[in-house]
Known about the structure:
The complex is a heterodimer.
Chain A: E1 4-10, E2 13-19, H1 25-32, E3 51-54, E4 57-60, E5 73-75, H2 88-96, H3 105-118, H4 124-130, H5 142-160
Parallel strand pairs in A: 1-5
Antiparallel strand pairs in A: 1-2, 3-4, 3-5
Chain B: H1 16-21, E1 36-42, E2 48-54, H2 56-60, E3 64-69, E4 93-94, E5 100-106, H3 109-117, E6 120-125, H4 132-135, E7 151-159, H5 162-167, E8 171-179, E9 191-196, E10 202-206, H6 211-221, E11 229-232, H7 248-260, E12 264-267, H8 270-276, E13 282-291, E14 297-307, H9 315-324, E15 335-342, H10 358-374, H11 379-384, E16 392-393, E17 399-400, H12 405-416, H13 418-421, E18 429-439, E19 454-460, E20 466-470, H14 479-491, E21 498-502, H15 519-546, E22 553-556, E23 559-562, E24 565-571, H16 572-583, E25 586-592, E26 614-625, E27 632-642, H17 649-668, E28 674-675, E29 678-679, E30 697-703, H18 722-737, E31 743-744, H19 748-776
Parallel strand pairs in B: 1-12, 8-31, 10-11, 14-15, 20-21, 27-30
Antiparallel strand pairs in B: 1-5, 2-4, 2-6, 3-5, 7-15, 8-13, 9-10, 9-12, 13-14, 16-17, 18-26, 19-20, 19-25, 22-23, 23-24, 26-27, 28-29
The complex binds FE2/S2 (inorganic) cluster (2 copies).
Amino acid sequence: xxxxxxxLDINGERRELAVPPQKVLLDVLREDLGLTxxxxxxxxxxxxxxxxxxxxxxxxxxxAIASCYQETRIITVEGLAVAGEPTPxxxxxxxxxxxxxxxxxxxxxxxxxxxxxxxxxPSDEEIRETLSSNLCRCTGYMQIYESVRLAMRRxxxxxxxxxxxx
Amino acid sequence: MSAYSIIGRPLPMTDSPAKVxxxxxxxxxxxxxxxxxxxxxxxxxxxxRIKKIDSSKxxxxxxVKAVATGRDxxxxxxxxxxxxxxxxxxxxxxxxxxxxxxxxAATTEEAAERALELIEVEYEPLTAxxxxxxxxxxxxxxxxxxxxxxxxxxxxxxFGNLEEGFSQAAFVQEERFYAAEVNHAAMEPHSTLAIxxxxxxxxxxxxxxxxxxxxxxxxxxxxxPMSEVRVIKPMVGGGFGGKSEVIPLEIIAPILAKKAKxxxxxxYTREEVFYAHRGRPITLxxxxxxxxxxxxxxxxxxxxxxxxxxxxxxxPVTVLYSGALLGAIYDIRNLKFDGYRVLTNKPACGAMRGxxxxxxxFAFESMLDMLAxxxxxxxxxxxxxxxxxxxxxxxxxxxxxxxGLPECIEKxxxxxxxxxxxGKLPYGRGIGIAxxxxxxxxxxxxxxSNMPHTTVNMKIDRDAGVTIFTGASEIGQGSDTMQVxxxxxxxxxxxxxxxxxxxxxxxxxxxxxxxxxxxxxxAGNACLEAAKNMRAQIFEAVAKKFGCIPDELExxxxxxxxxxxxxxxxxxxxxxxxxxxxHGTLVARxxxxxxxxxxxxxxxxxxxxxxxxxxxxxxxxxxxxxPETGEVTIHRVVAAHDCGKALxxxxxxxxxxxxxxxxxxxxxxEEMLWHEGRLMNPSLLEYRIPTTLETPQIDSIIVESExxxxxxxxxxxxxxxxxxxxxxxxxxxxxxxxxxxxxxPLTPEKILEAIREKQKQDxxxxxxxxxxxxxxx
Lengths: 166, 777
Ligand code: FES
Ligand code: FES
């Protein structure tokens, strides 16, 4: 089968690999790079479980042709933690019940991370709107909202603290 | 302060770090060297005899390492001992579009797909049956030879005296209700990795709620001793019943692995998930209920027909639940039930959250509102007047040990502002109430035996870490965390000290699985017993050291201390070492089997319905209906759930809210659309589960009735709240615009049609009254 050499920037690491030209990013991540955090939940880009960040913007890796993302910084759920420290939403999620089975969680992590980066203080309606592209069959979403609000409160408290005690 | 240090605390789920970091492994995330991709050829026709399969061309492809057909595994199987009617790959007939005909294992997915195209199958079509009522009339071409007229099973139960009951009624209502078919739509598509090992053993990782049934079935169908098959359940991305029986890929992957002598992974596409199905069947409920002038239910007669699809699956259990659980919620003395499970040429239905009870509850709670209106009673009050006097045994032999329903009703009435709202909101806005319930595990196992339903082992070694070995299956509901909390509470240690090995048939003791909401009650009780046995060994050693008796000791916060002088204490690590000096590595075991008194009556089918304990739920839904379009907006659902005791309130809230959410999906928008056996919406784009935008505010209220036999008083929380959500909305719509919708889902089309019909009738009535008045003048 014909393959072509591509270079990707994934979670801050430069990766070079040979893939069929039409291979989607999700399959490259999962099959070629062993980054199985991003999930496949559907056949028609309707669930959001595969979301990753491309230059800070959430995209659906299941429909993104990998070779088109060579000039882009890709962050997957595995790359969200900074130096092994979970992000505020990752900690809040456990405490407020944001995950049940967890299969949708990587997609939500990406969506919420992008939301809070772009707007650290979204309204309930903005949270709801933004997360409408991710499906969760377990939680009924209430505890996901709760997790986001908890993370927001913590981020706010942290930024109000003098740097020394951060 | 609570008497407990860990129980009742909102501990994050133990596997939460694995989930939020993306490092947790679900079945499809696991790969091993040399692994092949498996793909399945599905039937394009709904009902046909297979005349010939020629797979020689597929076998000729160099990338193809194995091709399997029905010839490779001829032993039939099925989840129920009375329903072994499936083959993982068809042997002589196909019975639905999507039925499994052949499978290939190849080095790449593209090669596997190409190989499928090269398999030639010749079919001889048979009459196909799509409508359950038509299927029941069939005189020939029955779907299964041993099932005349395509009736899988029928049951006829009568308790008390129907005639007398109806004669006492001041109001009798009769109605037909319809519920469309729905699918679990768990976010994780099914996936199975079967690893053929050089020592001719088989290891299988699978997305399953029932690893031990899978273990047994693989051994049976592949004719291998169970001791040479190992099943491991990795993380599972949701089940809701869709992974609670053996799904074809779980047998096909092992068949291919055995043939190719290589590891084979099969992962379903979302379309395949819909066709594998096992969801909630199309259900027709003919319901007749009598109410006395005082608002007491005097008699109930229900006829339930379920469109079961092409195989037995859990079918007889589903239909029996729909009858039996009419009994365990209200005080009903005269009860008749006729249930039919019918075969049709569509994918098999099965267990789905609220198994068997949901569609009947929709009918019953709708009808209670209709009767309340007839009797000019408040719907909440009608429900209050029909409460059970627990503890009790119902007319159909169900033992109710704890009953928080009265408190659930009070709580939702209060929180929702029911008294100010019911019947008082402006036209177009309304509020509805409904109740529901569910078992905390089935008192009788699927395969009758006297074995415990679950066993939990525990080990402590010199590192003073506690390891729990449990067969119970974490599928997102909190099974692992629940057991860690129970063990930590009893041993008086930090939860971090506890490790848990779960659902691996080589390592962990048998547990029947995560279905019928059995895990907290059953595995929880077994874990409780194991922990107590473990603690006894530790206390015995410490008592010797302190010169007291074990009963005088307590453990908390990682220490064991003398109860009457807590300063006399010893760190848990040291206590453990004392005990190990006596016994060597500490091991303990706990088991659970439901008590005999909970196992139900003697009539045919009495095995289904009995449970050691029942959960209860009440809900209100507040809605707006646009009378011009029929569109419904749900503003808020208030859900109270009696879970006995909330071992972890965040998890309980999550289960309740998740159940309500799933109920609302079925109420408002979910429906599998069939055309001659073909599913018209086999994707998440077309089969629309609610997004954040369609999901209203859902408030959960925990009610704790402290069950006398539950672990720390706990009972089920994961299913009982689903059923109430649907009739609560239907009743709210009726309150808003005065129309009664008896068919699910409650679509704008149906509502609009009903509104127009009502307007027409109202106009005619008004015209009649006007002309009467004129006539009288
Ligand atoms: S896998 Fe569902 S949107 Fe990408
Ligand atoms: S937690 Fe299971 S799908 Fe969201």
